[in-house]
From TrEMBL:
Protein name (Swiss-Prot/TrEMBL): 1687_t:CDS:1
Family annotation (Gene3D superfamilies): Carbon-nitrogen hydrolase
Record localization: Cell membrane
Taxonomic lineage from the root: Eukaryota, Fungi, Fungi incertae sedis, Mucoromycota, Glomeromycotina
Keyword Transmembrane helix appears in the UniProt entry: yes
InterPro entries hit by this protein: Apolipo_AcylTrfase, C-N_Hydrolase, C-N_Hydrolase_sf
Key words, A-Z: Acyltransferase, Cell membrane, Membrane, Transferase, Transmembrane, Transmembrane helix
Organism of provenance: Acaulospora morrowiae
Principal location class: membrane
């Protein structure tokens, strides 16, 4: 049996340069695919597109993913159909060239984005089961994936709707490395709460790979904005999905913990009042047990040596 309970796939990030174009982003993605990356994710809002350009992007992405057999997460702005604002979008394309799901950013950054970017519908995050292309000496791997964009990750009630997934994709674009590192740490909290891996690709801050225990396995701070940056890491996946109490009960878990602490606070005076009496009783029990043990050892000692003395007397 050549199957392995822990199977490793390569995942990668394409961090865009300022003024990135469709063909260049697709080409950079293909470079990672030729380096064995099976899931490639772009940094947030890599492209600013007109409506007719979105179709071109999807067609080129479809052709490239079919050619190299990998999953590609596209990120782009596009005009809204209902307002003069833009939509901040994510689209996942499969190795068969088909669209798996779309997602619109739910929480634009206040002031920096909210004046020009339309809020998405929110609610339930998209979840899809994807099957990885079969690798040599390994059984075929399938996993559940979902995605949210940048600031969305700071809203646990939104992310928990995708707690069933194995891998969570998070394109992001922060302004400074120290801000990106803070958001990377916040993403690690979501990983702990929901028991999933997080692939974060941050075009301006800190990209990384976080495991279901919240450990940041890999991290790379964005270095330059004048060229494309390509990152790839090994992602070890187990057949076993980690289930958490928080994923099942959400914020009720927090309120439950606060309730227990409140009850302990109420019980504290009673505990302190009766504590000395209880401790004295337990101390007396301990003293009695120790005394009985000493007596038992003494009796055993005397019986043993009395028996030896008796045998010596008979021998004499």
């Amino acid at each position: 049996d050549n199957s392995d309970p822990i199977r490793t796939i390569k995942v990668g990030c394409v961090l865009p340069t300022k003024g990135a174009d469709i063909k260049s982003m697709i080409h950079q993605s293909a470079v990672l695919a030729t380096q064995s990356s099976k899931i490639v994710l772009w940094g947030e809002s890599a492209l600013d597109l007109r409506r007719e350009e979105v179709k071109t992007l999807l067609e080129l992405a479809s052709n490239e993913t079919k050619k190299h057999k990998y999953f590609l997460g596209l990120t782009y702005f596009m005009p809204s159909e209902t307002s003069d604002k833009k939509k901040n979008m994510f689209t996942l394309i499969g190795p068969d060239g088909e669209k798996i799901f779309d997602y619109q950013k739910t929480h634009p950054v206040p002031l920096a984005e909210s004046r020009t970017v339309e809020s998405g519908p929110g609610g339930q995050l998209p979840i899809a089961n994807i099957v990885m292309p079969k690798q040599k000496n390994q059984t075929q791997l399938s996993l559940n994936v979902s995605a949210a964009i940048c600031l969305d990750m700071d809203f646990p009630e939104l992310i928990t709707t995708a707690s069933a997934v194995n891998l969570f994709l998070q394109p992001a674009q922060t302004w400074r490395s120290h801000i990106g590192l803070q958001h990377l740490r916040m993403a690690s909290v979501r990983a702990i709460e929901n028991g999933f891996w997080v692939l974060r690709c941050d075009g301006g801050g800190a990209s990384g790979l976080i495991d279901p225990l919240g450990r940041i396995r890999n991290v790379q701070v964005s270095s330059r904005a004048d060229r494309y940056q390509l990152l790839n890491w090994d992602l070890p996946l187990s057949d076993e999905k980690i289930h958490t109490i928080y994923a099942s009960w959400g914020e009720y878990t927090v309120w439950g913990c606060l309730g227990v602490l409140f009850l302990l606070k109420l019980c504290k005076p009673l505990i302190w009042k009766n504590g000395p009496i209880f401790m004295n009783e337990e101390w007396q029990k301990g003293v009695e047990m120790w005394t009985n043990a000493k007596s038992w050892v003494g009796r055993k000692y005397e019986d043993t040596f009395r028996h030896v003395e008796h045998e010596e007397y008979l021998d004499a």
